[in-house]
Amino acid sequence: MSFLSVIRRSAPKLIKTCIIRPVTNGVPNLNKKEIEVTFVRHDGTRIKTKGKVGESFLDVVVNNDLSLEGFGACEGTLTCSTCHLVFKKEDFDQLPDRPEGEEGDMLELARGVTDTSRLGCQVFLTENMDGIVVDVPESSNDARLQ
């Protein structure tokens, strides 16, 4: 049997397998509960929207096509600080973890950092966040451009 005949015989099976059973590493957001999230710009403008439990705050901005200039420039790869958010103390205290490692490094480069600052790409929505309000600092600092 020639190499070409093996390819001709195998190719349809491979194509069918790839089309029917795509490979994914992510967890689908099917039927996940939606919660309300409000982003407050530096000028006080409030942007109320919805996000699905399990999405990051960056996902919420992108998926709802919110107009937050420069927000999430690195698309969540943790190489900038443009998705910097400031949480209310009581909300920050409820977050399951604290910024450390790469997120901590990026926050050091962000403008207007507070004790309750986090990167939106690193904080994921939970059901108990329904109605959460977060502040978006006046200017972002894209650490990739430094």
Summary?
Helices cover 27% and strands 17% of the residues.
Could you describe the 3D structure shown?
The protein is an alpha+beta fold and 146 residues long. The protein has 4 helices and 5 strands; from the N terminus they run αββαβααββ. The protein has helices at 3-20, 57-63, 89-94, 101-109; strands at 34-40, 46-52, 84-87, 117-119, 132-135. The protein has a 5-stranded mixed β-sheet. Strand 1 (34-40) and strand 2 (46-52) form a beta hairpin. The radius of gyration is 20 Å and the shape is globular. The termini are far apart.
Q: Could you tell me the mean pLDDT?
A: 82
Strand content: 15-25%
Q: What is the percent of helical residues?
A: 25-40%
Total beta-strand segments: 5
